[in-house]
Design brief:
This protein is mainly α. It has one helix at 2-152. 99% of the residues lie in helices and 0% in strands. The longest helix is centred in the middle third of the chain and has 151 residues, at 2-152.
Length: 153
């Protein structure tokens, strides 16, 4: 019985020792896995932090670009309005000049046509005037002859 008891104690010790050894291995394995997980999660958190910082940076850049685009649109709109007003003024001035020029062109055309009509009229009347002059010369010559005859008498 003592032998059995001693075997039992030895077996108990052996079982306790095995349990402790298994517990130590599991604790060691747990520590290692825990450490690995902390390392992995730390790396993941660092990546997340970097991405968050990049996101904030990009958000600021987008905001700045939006502001810049808005300013550029306002500047462009002002420039378009300025060019539009200038063009309208130029068109009005051109129309006024054209209107003034039209009156002058009309007056010159009227003068040309009047001169042309006068020339045509004079040319048309020239034979008649020549005939009247010739008749007048003949009449004058006859009167001179008559005067000379009366003078001799």
């Amino acid at each position: 019985m003592n032998l059995l008891k001693s075997k039992l104690r030895q077996m108990e010790k052996s079982a306790d020792s095995e349990q402790r050894e298994i517990g130590d291995r599991w604790r060691e394995e747990f520590k290692k896995q825990s450490h690995d997980l902390q390392k992995d999660s730390s790396a993941s958190l660092n990546v997340v932090d970097e991405l968050t910082m990049k996101k904030k940076s990009l958000a600021l850049a987008v905001t700045e670009l939006q502001r810049s685009i808005k300013e550029e649109e306002e500047r462009t709109n002002k420039l378009v309005e300025k060019v539009k007003k200038k063009s309208e003024q130029e068109i009005e001035a051109a129309c006024a000049n054209w209107g003034e020029g039209e009156a002058i062109r009309r007056e010159k055309w009227l003068e040309r046509k009047t001169k042309e009509i006068r020339e045509i009229t004079i040319k048309g009347l020239e034979p008649e005037v020549q005939r009247i002059i010739d008749k007048h010369k003949v009449d004058c010559a006859e009167l001179d002859n008559e005067y000379e005859q009366n003078k001799q008498v």
